[in-house]
Specification:
Layout (H helix, E strand, L loop, with lengths): L2 E5 L8 H8 L6 E7 L4 E6 L5 H16 L9 E5 L8 H7 L3 E3 L5 E3 L1 H21 L3 E2 L5 E3 H6 L2 H4 L6 E2 L6 H14 L15 E3 L4 H6 L5 E2 L3 E11 L14 E11 L1 H21 L4 E5 L9 H10 L3 E8 L4 E12 L1 H5 L3 E2 L2 E2 L1 E8 H12 L8 H15 L1
Parallel strand pairs: 7-12, 11-17
Antiparallel strand pairs: 1-3, 2-3, 4-14, 5-6, 8-10, 9-10, 12-13, 13-19, 14-15, 15-16, 16-19, 17-18
Length: about 400
């Protein structure tokens, strides 16, 4: 296959992982790629010579996005707890034990101790965080209107993630033909061509969007309200789908505040303190640090820099010793009045402020087993005790 070598230019080392992630969405003509840090190039293979010019242009455009650093990228470690841990292949071990079954790219079934551990983590969020903030329980559909995503500016920030939902056209000939061909040949994607209706819905990529659209036009009593909800979310991430660290279909628990600025800011700070205590109790090897979303937009550098400067996003990152890297399992987010304006939610005479904290539950499971192994009896004391107590409660 034809090969390309493109200079990295001025992309800083600390942004290479985000550039590598974004590369998977550049072109379907790229069959493989690697970032050569030593020679400061991107080495790529393409499907054919005819696509060379197009692929070079697209990769160069992406590199340019990650090279713009007008505002700087503020870094900050707010909590750092490291342990010397042996490398454990958690994914292979869970597959062998049938704690996890892969049922398609980025889709899994969890069972046994892995499922119980995920249930414990969610129960702990409800017990510690939702109870502390007196969060109201809300239940959401897994799909969301595309018009809502548009109002949340999701399409302009993360267009690569969206899993759209559609249906066959309301037409007897279309329905008959589709059914007949499935009966004769079995289903295949080509049977959808020219037969699908409009894409009015998508599978929701986040939990909190439903909270805001569900409060449209509300006038809140001071200081505001707190919500908790859990949702099976979807984010298409191309070749980045692997293990439990980056799933296409995953479970997100959130606690959301919306109301007066002081209420949201102080609640978020209290939640971060509770989270750090959790990390200490379970003896997790981790950092809690300033972060930014992986915006897939031409103004990436401006958005990411602003987010970091404002401390608008922080992440708890758990170490994966076998990979010698960390993954984000929790985020703390401050939205200012973005969603209050978008959905006309007010407190008094002013637009409401919002913030949220979110747990990626499958990632927690993967990181904990990666750090401590498959035997709960060998886990850190408080983690083991909470796991055993939860197992007893579930069994009874």
């Amino acid at each position: 296959m034809p090969k390309l070598s493109i200079p990295l230019g001025d992309v800083d080392h600390d942004l290479l992982s985000q550039l590598e992630y974004a590369m998977t969405f550049v072109s379907e003509d790229i069959t493989s790629y690697v970032i050569d840090e030593k020679n400061k190039t991107i080495e790529a293979e393409i499907s054919g010579e005819s696509s060379r010019e197009s692929v070079v242009r697209k990769i160069s455009e992406l590199i340019e996005r990650y090279s713009k650093r007008e505002f700087g990228m503020l870094e900050g470690i707010h909590f750092d707890q490291r342990r010397d841990l042996p490398p454990i292949d958690a994914w292979s071990g869970m597959l062998e034990r049938r704690w996890v079954t892969s049922i398609g790219a980025g889709h899994v079934v969890l069972r046994g101790p892995a499922a119980l551990l995920q249930d414990l983590i969610d129960a702990k969020v409800r017990k510690v965080f939702a109870a502390f903030f007196k969060a109201e329980l809300e239940l959401y559909p897994s799909t969301i209107m595309c018009s809502t995503l548009d109002r949340c500016n999701h399409f302009t920030s993360f267009p690569e993630h969206i899993d759209f939902v559609s249906h066959l056209k309301q037409d007897l000939d279309v329905l008959n033909a589709f059914s007949a061909e499935c009966r004769e040949k079995g289903w295949s994607p080509v049977l959808h061509h020219d037969r699908m209706g409009e894409h009015e819905f998508a599978v929701s990529p986040s939990t909190c969007y439903h909270a805001y659209e569900g409060m449209e036009g509300w006038r809140l009593e001071p200081p505001g309200r707190c919500i908790t909800a859990i949702l099976h979310c979807h984010r298409y991430e191309g070749a980045n789908h692997r293990t439990l660290s980056r799933l296409r279909a995953f479970t997100m628990r959130e606690v959301v505040w919306i109301g007066a600025p002081r209420y949201v800011i102080e609640s978020r700070a209290q939640a971060e303190e509770l989270l750090i205590q959790w990390a200490k109790d379970w003896e997790l090897s981790c950092t809690f640090e300033t972060a930014n979303d992986m915006f897939f937009t031409q103004d990436y550098a401006i958005k990411a820099s602003f987010q970091r400067q404002q401390q608008a996003k922080k992440e708890l990152r758990l170490m994966i010793p076998s990979d010698n890297q960390s993954i984000s399992v929790f985020s703390s987010n401050f939205h200012a009045m973005t969603f209050g304006k978008a959905f006309d939610i007010k407190i008094g005479e002013r637009q409401a402020t919002s913030g949220c904290i979110a747990w990626g539950l499958e990632r927690w499971v993967y990181a904990i087993i990666s750090q401590f192994g498959f035997d709960p009896q060998a886990w850190p004391t408080k983690l083991r005790e909470e796991y055993e107590d939860h197992r007893s409660r579930v069994a009874s």
